[in-house]
Amino acid sequence: MPAQDFVSPDSIRAQFSAAMSLMYKQEVPLYGRLLTLVSETNQQVLDERPQLAEALRWTGEIERLDQERHGAIRVGTAAELATIGRLFAVMGMQPVGYYDLSSAGVPVHSTAFRAVHEQSLQVSPFRVFTSLLRLELIDNSELRELARSILARRQIFTPRALALIEQCEREGGLRAEDARAFVQEALHTFRWHPHATVTAAQYQQLHDQHRLIADVVAFKGPHINHLTPRTLDIDAIQRGMPAKGIPPKAVIEGPPPRQQPILLRQTSFKALEERVAFSDQTAAAGSHTARFGEIEQRGAALTPKGRQLYDRLLEAAREALGGVPAEANAERYMQLLSEQFEAFADDLGQMREQGLAYFRYFPTERGLAARGAPGRPTTLEGLVAAGHVHFEALVYEDFLPVSAAGIFQSNLGDEAQSEYGSNANREAFEQALGKAVQDELALYALSEQRSLEACARALDLPEL
Ligand code: OOG
Ligand code: NI
Q1: What mean pLDDT comes out for the span 263-269?
Q2: Pairing mode, if any, of strands 286-289 and 273-276?
């Protein structure tokens, strides 16, 4: 079968992302309202800040902005994680990064499934933060066994989804009709199921141990628990949410507001209370809070040096606060954060000189016009100074462990604080997944490198 008959994985991911968004809008109407607020705000920002619009045009992000979102799921077993990995691979999504949430009192570890090449990200930046429950961290052995046996009985994929994954692996791709069927079949795994697989008493037992355990174990599948659009101004959204009847969490996770955004800033709002029918009930007499809303603003991907600085400043702000950021100390926390981050250059040129972020380079009209001209600059610095090469920050495509912990906590409720020590175990995660997770820093470095190579080619230079 010739390869050209196959639909590209990027296009399957774009279809899936759109289908997921449509499904979630129907399941969680507040998500639809949030999308409207975000797109109105983004339009306003683009109108008011032509320089930002220009930067987004250079990188192409302006075209992907509307469809940009991430989701999150939590799976219960190694086998589920491995198959989810194969399902995402059909859509060109690879596991990137390892996140340990145990140190934050959440018994999971996680990765992000996403496209890894800038051209694929341009077609669809859709990503899914995927967590694996760690039953081994739960010390109540009876409950652990109960959870294990319940999880062992469920099948979170439809038979047709499994068959299409196998077909794709065997043949090297899916044709249009199969790709459409795959998207519909895969959606079932992420749907909300109001029928629990456990009795009301079992639910209570799981819930008393940790709300997250009940969320993962008591249902038929790993329902998508939020879908997060990308905003260009998260402070405006945070301020605008209450008026729309959407109460946000107390503080925005991540760095403080800046001229040049870095990494990721996120805020969320409380979970919905859903009606649930436990297995010993005929009507939906119970309730469960699983799903919430989240918004994010993305900025520059940082180099190891930039990331170390970020981690240090964030830690210093938290230390100075002397507690977990919450409603009562939110203002002081934002103040401390801004003070600390004065030490982080807020200018693209300086960030580049100091080696804090990754960049993409583009040949300019002037550079192209000067091709072959005698005496033109041939080094990167010379080309930048002469305006022959333009640079923009490479956008961060991943997540942040401290922020993720804050998001988990905000929707699990503050009563859910537990102690699991610091139990990072990337090896165990990769063994469950059946492959290694990719190093996000290496991916950014490659992307930057490719943009330099493309620049050199366009400008007829040997290398940059
Ligand atoms: C995932 C929480 C983390 C993010 O954006 O950092 C997250 C979850 O609650 O399952 O979504
Ligand atoms: Ni999220």
Answers
A1: 93
A2: antiparallel
